[in-house]
Amino acid sequence: MHDELPGEQDRDRRLIYRIGSIAALGLAVITILHSVVFSIVGLPTNVTGWFDLFGRNPVGGLLAFETLMVVYVVLSVPVVLALYAALRPTSGSLMAVYVAISVIGIVAFIVARPAFEMLSLSNGYAAAATDAERAAYLAAGTATYAAFHGTAFWVSYLLGSLGGLVLSAVILRGTVFSRRTAYVRIASSVFDFGLFVPGVGLLIALLSVVCLLAFNLMVARRLAQLARTPAASVRTLEQRALAI
Length: 244
Known about the structure:
Layout: H1 6-41, H2 47-56, H3 58-64, H4 67-87, H5 92-111, H6 115-127, H7 131-146, H8 151-173, H9 179-192, H10 201-228, H11 231-243
Helix pairs in contact: 1-3, 1-4, 1-10, 2-3, 2-6, 4-5, 5-8, 6-7, 8-9, 9-10
């Protein structure tokens, strides 16, 4: 096995930053599209409402059941890897924790959004010929819908907030990203917990979405800059981070 040459390492570094930048920009676009979907399609509050939505508009039902957000968390993988590559010299151990938290949260969120299962159950409910068959599909739909706000969702939600705080702590210790980037991500994580505030919780949580949108745009911009930065300059940033 041969060690990678410096030029090859530099190309790999630039590539992961470039992919991470594009992915981060994609996250921002998905956030905006998801908000538009909610304003147009709405969000049913019970199983029969979901079955009705899937029956009238299958695509709208899939989008309302947050299929776009499943794409979002999958697309966040290259962003997480790019952030790890950029910030590992600052704190390899904390960034390893951040990657682990992110991966667990991503898997948990995918589990919590069984959109295509709901579509299949909706089709079965619509085609059912007897009350007994409809009742069976309704029961299955109720169990599937429970996952939407179940344990996997809350694990993903809380780990996402915790991961943001860990990432921000690393950013503040280094010089690769601006302190403003860290503060915006901290604000997003703090506003996440607003969801637990009675009455105005949802409004507070929406502020988290705005902060996260801004954070993704800032990360996309910075990663694009790093992808164009000469290797010597990157090493200087890494040495400064190690000296802090």
